[in-house]
Amino acid sequence: MVRHYPLFLVLVFVNEVFCLQSSCRGEQDSLPVEGAGGCGCGKLKRAADESGTATKDPADKYSAEANERTSGASEDGNKVQSQMVLIPGGEFLMGTDNPGIPADGEGPQRSVHVDPFYMDVQEVTNQQFQSFVGATGYVTEAEKFRDSFVFEGILSDSVKNQITQAVAAAPWWLPVKGANWKHPEGPDSSITDRLNHPVVHVSWSDAVAFCSWANKRLPTEAEWECACRAGLKDRLYPWGNKLNPKGKHYANLWQGEFPTHNSGEDGYVQTSPVESFPANGFGLYDIVGNVWEWTSDWWTVHHMTDHQHNPTGPPSGKDKVKKGGSYMCHKSYCYRYRCAARSQNTPDSSASNLGFRCVSREKR
Q1: Which of 16, 59, 90, 260 is deepest in the core (most CB within 10 A)?
Q2: For residues 352 and 39, is the Cβ–Cβ distance under 8 A?
Q3: How far apart, in Å, do the first and last CA atoms of the chain sit?
Q4: Which residues pair with 175 in a beta bridge?
Q5: Distance CA 326, CA 329 (A)
């Protein structure tokens, strides 16, 4: 498979996405990331393969039949399926007229109706994804590509010393050979003590395959945002407008100076076990923070202002929408842990802060 990497445009100068580490370091202070600021997550993209298509529909192969063979339980007897809660749907205001990052297409605020649906209370965990792989033999795209993007701050010195490339737009992102869902920081890491953490290094296509196996699907962006808001109107976060009400942390985010120092005031410097922070009003944990979550929608920054019923985004595109931010988000650099915030990646992209959760019209 021939792999091509995208170009990053800054004013009228074109820079290669990958460059020698020594040259990338010098750009960190002077080169803005994603225009309005960001962790660079949206730059972690793979190009289409040599056939011209990013991926075939993974749902074709990994269906309910494989799920039924596992009887819904892992080898140690723990439940594979996440608990699901009813999201009542109805009318809500999607987006915002006061965007934190206007270039992301957060606005305008618009009236949207979504039908009721069920959503996993938590992000899909390593243990659940492990059960899926054990039942189906599924191989993720990161495993096929033989590398994935990892935040430099969580890599061991031995792994970093072997890397000579970085993302020009965000030099704290490094392509690590052998990084995948089983080895989140490369070959010298494992998920043995992180089975209850969200799975990472899963592409959109990987997420669709898991959801299909579990008789579920990915949420639309409208469904995800409706669930995030939990019935609250014109609020920044799932719990209100204050980031840390009464000094309490409600999400796994970055504290300190990004990207050099994460103080871990919330208890974590990378992913946290699911359900480590309070749930929102609908009973959803980590709906913002911890890891980014894929949605089913294709990316666009132009939205209809007319009232919409169950919108699904544009019919085609190059990138898929992801929501919720991650443990790397900080207001000074990636203010995307708001319900209205959004970002994008190509469907075959993967990274150490990117996961998903599933939804269904019926409770599973």
Answers
A1: 59
A2: no
A3: 38
A4: 149
A5: 6
**Is residue 352 within 8 Å of residue 179, measured between CB atoms?**
yes
Looking at residue 357, its pLDDT comes to 98
> What does the pLDDT read at residue 27?
26
- CA dist., res. 241 & res. 225, Å (int): 16
3.40.50.150, 3.90.1580.10, 3.40.720.10, 3.40.140.10: CATH of 83-136+202-360? 3.90.1580.10
**Which helix (H) or strand (E) is 147 found in, with range?**
strand 147-151
pLDDT tens for 226-277 read: 999 999 999 999 999 999 999 999 999 999 999 999 999 999 999 999 999 9
Q: What is the dihedral of CA 359, 212, 145, 356, to 10 degrees?
A: 10
Contacts (Cβ under 8 Å, ≥6 apart) of 30: none
292: β partners = 354
Query: Taking the domains of the chain in order of start, what are their residue ranges?
Result: 83-136+202-360
Where the chain has pLDDT below 70, the residues are: 1-38, 43, 46-79
84-87, strands of its sheet edge to edge: 84-87, 117-120, 359-360
Residue 6: asked if its preceding bond is cis (omega within 30°), the reply is no
* CA nearest to 220, candidates 87, 348, 129, 43: 87
| Chain Cα centroid distance, residue 96 | 21
SS3 213: helix
Q: What is the Cα–Cα distance from 168 to 15, expressed in whole angstroms?
A: 7
